[in-house]
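Fold this sequence, please.
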Amino acid sequence: MQKRLRFLTDENISLIKERAQYLLKKFGVTVHNKEVLALLAEHGASVDLVEERVYMNEMVVEQALKTVPSEFSLFDRSGNRSFTVGDSQSHFVPGSAAIDVYDCVLNKHRKPLTSDYIKYIGVAEQLPSLSAQSTAFIPSDVVNEISDSYRLFLSLLYGNKPVVTGAFRADSFSVMSDLQLIIRGTGEELRLKPMTIFSCCPSSPLKWSMDTSQNILDCSRASIPIELVAMPLCGFLAPVTLFDTLIQHTAENLSGVVISQCANPGAPLLYGGSPAIFDMRFQTTPMGAIETMMIICAYNEIGKSYKIPTQAYISLSDAKQLDMQAGIETGIGAILAVLSGIDSISGPGMIDFESSFSIEKLIVDNEICRMTDRLKRGISRSENDDFPSIFLELISENHVLTAEHTQTHLRSEHLMPGVVINRKNRDKWDSDGQPTLINTACKLAKELNSEFVGIPHNSEIQNELFKRMEAESEKYGLTKLPVDQKGLR
């Protein structure tokens, strides 16, 4: 499929970009980081050290935009290229950093444990439509001070896919970097074969905290890719109109681009976000709202106009369990994201306003991702097809079930979904015990985990990973991790 869905005209994209630049020049951005303030001043920005406010003129922004790569590749833990971001393909990644998990057996949300995280990795590694892992949720059985690095530690210990991650604390970066260096060996090898993307989130309106701005500096200097996750809330922390929220979102992203490229021209990044409208009735931020999805697809067009790869939190749901609402919101989001051409789509597995994660939903969402993959391949014809003979056989036999043409093209033309999508007739469904989607997904999650043994490291690397993680945990009084080199304690 060549034609893409669009929400903005070229004229409106230009106007949004012009007004975003006006915000940066006249109103500026608050940056609570003296090192970043000094860096921006060196590169021509006007800095008010007392107010910690930075005013970015057109020259500063345009210079930064010139050095952003239009694409970059991610590599798995083994050093093999996994996928390229910005290659005109959409890649799905699980949502990240949930504080709860949905337990389908107990039918309730609860705090995650290390054992849940290992189960999640086992499932994510085996779902073919997911291009990467993410640090999907935060295990509650370790101290909060190591929660960033511990999640990455588990992902690198048990999984092989690249990881979308992030640090809520500035001091988490050093150990998270060390874990990657243990695997790659040198900083140069890590630059050549990055295995993670770090989420870096400004605060609305137009602010960067000490921790998030330091994350941009640290990642950019190490050439570790980042995704800029601007989160203006339309009608609360951003104007109530979608168009004006896009102006703010653009300005917040551009400010991150400038920080990154001043730190290291050419550092890889994604133009992204997790904006939402604000539902004033319930004081919630619905990611499944159609207006939220419209903002996201529209900012993708703006990011593309800058020739920067794009990311979005979409293809997720505000539902509290795996129900019809979860399917409606996730499915619509996935289709819109792919038709819009968003490069990295974060969201599968997420429910409850990004605060909870469901392993079973991740399995169902894998089928949605597969459907969108078939959708974007579109309809084409085979140059070798003998048109008359196809219909001659159909008319003479009254079917084409056994035709050579059918056998040749069936698998490529017709998507065969997994077991969570039930296409059996009702009699067969009755005889199978009337299985529900959620029960089937729960059963499949158990089967996938029973078959998963982790991706083995060589013993030296594994020893070094544990040594580094244990040293970090001991700094905060945690003398034993919930896992050791034999697995869960």
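Residues 288 and 329 are 5 Å apart (CA to CA). The chain has a mean pLDDT of 96.
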